[in-house]
Design a protein that fits this description.
- The chain is of the alpha+beta class.
- It contains 2 helices and 3 strands; from the N terminus they run ααβββ.
- The longest helix is centred in the first third of the chain and has 23 residues.
- The radius of gyration is 22 Å and the shape is elongated.
- About 14% of the residues have low confidence.
């Protein structure tokens, strides 16, 4: 193996490395803006089983049955809270099969 690296080889590897690191950072940031859904997750994980059982999604499948229109939803600053999911954060745009119309 040749240990002498040409200037062109060094710059090429440096450029590829920068693309890999930049691409990884961009993918990691994906979903952390635009509605704040990433911050509306249950930080403890305590409600994960309930969320899965009720098929919760950050974006409601039926636009007429969003969390923001549900009787179990409590509005809050960045994210709302769901009483079904132990008052853990949920997206106002989210939805699940336990949706009940607000009175």
């Amino acid at each position: 193996m040749n240990s002498n690296l040409s200037r062109r080889g060094f710059l090429t590897r440096l450029g590829v490395g920068a693309l890999v690191v930049g691409g990884s950072a961009a993918l990691a940031a994906c979903g952390k803006s635009g509605g704040g859904d990433a911050q509306c997750k249950d930080p403890t994980g305590a409600s994960d089983a309930l969320r899965k059982q009720n098929e919760y999604a950050d974006k409601a499948v039926d636009a007429t049955k969003k969390c923001s229109g549900c009787a179990l939803y409590v509005a809050d600053a960045a994210c709302g809270k769901c009483t079904l999911f132990q008052s853990t954060p949920v997206s106002a745009e989210g939805g699940c099969k336990a949706w009940a119309k607000k009175a």
